[in-house]
TrEMBL record:
CDD domains (alphabetical): NAT_SF (cd04301)
Coiled-coil stretches: none
Cited Gene3D superfamilies: 3.40.630.30
Protein name (record): Arsenic resistance N-acetyltransferase ArsN2
UniProt entry keywords in alphabetical sequence: Transferase
InterPro entries reported in the protein's UniProt record: Acyl_CoA_acyltransferase, GNAT_dom, NAT_camello-type
Length: 150
């Protein structure tokens, strides 16, 4: 698929991003128009078919909402979104990425993330709504030092 456009999300994309996340059982309640600027979307024929985002806290960030419409999952859109968001994180001088997942730990392990104890999370990450409220305590907590990212 050559016609996929990757671009920063805008405030106008917020409802469509939330709809995509809801359809795929991913948390979206704390995503607001003002923090959507740290998200990247994939569009095909004017439809948002993928998204990924960061919740940035100083020099660390929480990787958020990697999601691709089911019918496009074999098109390598997820890895393209991931590479774009890590490049964005480097540009923002992010040193470590963290994430919480209930289903994709093996996928993220292949990308270099390692499972770490939730108790080791930086305090700013612990204060995020995703960490405190939206992801269950059974979610796997993972970390990636960006100097070893793809």
């Amino acid at each position: 698929m050559d016609n996929i456009i990757y671009k920063p999300a805008t405030k106008n994309d917020e409802p469509l991003i939330k709809s995509l996340l809801a359809k795929n059982n991913l948390p979206y309640g704390d995503i607001k128009a003002e923090n959507i600027i740290d998200f990247i979307i994939a569009k095909y024929e004017d439809k948002i078919i993928g998204v990924i985002g960061l919740e940035i806290f100083d020099h660390v960030a929480l990787l958020r909402s990697l999601c691709v419409e089911e019918e496009y999952r074999k098109e390598k859109i997820g890895i393209s979104l991931y590479k774009k968001i890590t490049a964005y994180a480097h540009a923002k001088r992010i040193k470590e990425l963290y994430l919480l997942t209930t289903t994709a730990d093996k996928y993220f392990n292949r990308l270099g993330f390692e499972i770490v104890n939730r108790l080791t999370a930086p305090d700013l990450i612990k204060m995020s709504l995703e960490f405190k409220d939206y992801c269950p305590s059974s979610a796997v907590f993972m970390k990636l030092s960006l100097d070893c990212a793809i």
